Every structure is written in structure tokens, then in C-alpha cells.
Amino acid sequence: MKHISFFYPVLLYFDMLTRNNSFNPYIHNVGILLGMIFAMNIVFIWKDAKSSFACIKGMKFFSQSIESSCFFIFAFHFIILIDLLRIVLFIMNRWYNPYVMIICYITIPLITVLVLVKLYFYIKRNKPSLLILLTGGR
User: Fold this and answer.
1) Dihedral sign for Cα atoms in the order 67, 118, 114, 53
2) Which of 23, 91, 96, 100 has the most CB atoms lying inside 10 A of its own CB?
3) What phi and psi values does residue 132 have, to the nearest 5 degrees?
4) pTM attached to this predicted model
């Protein structure tokens, strides 16, 4: 299964290159499925790395912060993701390039997660009752 997930970046690149072809929706849908497998493998690799590097203080704090804010990220990622996509698509309307699309495909979710983790800890520190309301006490 791990070997299949390494095929995902190649398929992502091929998906960007064949964007206007008639067979692209099939490649794109296979890419979505392989992307889920790729993400699951990243999680399993992260879990193994977390247990291996438990002595590193920063790694442990980062791991705990992601775990504690997981539901908050899940519940609110769509709001920030849509705004970032609107901005990027407005900018990219002027200069479309497959390489820029790949970079955006990777960086926009990372920016979204980082913003939401920061927002989670800000609300947790300053307005804990609001955080309980927003997450349902999770």
C-alpha cells in the first residue's frame, strides 16, 4: 500500500498537465482516491515518527497541539479554505501554470491548518467558553 501512495505526486502532476482533455475527470477521480491513501500513509508515518522522536520537546508539543485541535480544524477548515481559494484563483486567473497549481494544492491546506491551530489556541486561551460552544465540548 505504501508504494501506491508514492505514485500520487506523479498522478497529481499528470492531472495538472491533462486538465483540458476529455479523459481528465477519470484521472482526477483516481487522484482523489490515491490522495486519500497518500494522506493515510502520511498519518501512519507521522505516528511512527512521533513514537520514535518522543524525546524531542518541540515534536511532542506539535503533536499534542494537532491532536487537541483536530475537531476544530475539521469543523472550520472549509471557511478559511474557500477564502484562500478565492484569493488564489483571482491571482491565478492572470497567470495559469500547472506548477503554480501544484504549489497551491500543497500550500493552501498547510496554511489553512496553521491558521486554524493558531486560532484554536487563541480562543482556548482567551475565550474557552466560546471554544466549547464552537466544538461541542470536544
Assistant:
1) negative
2) 100
3) -65, -40
4) 0.57
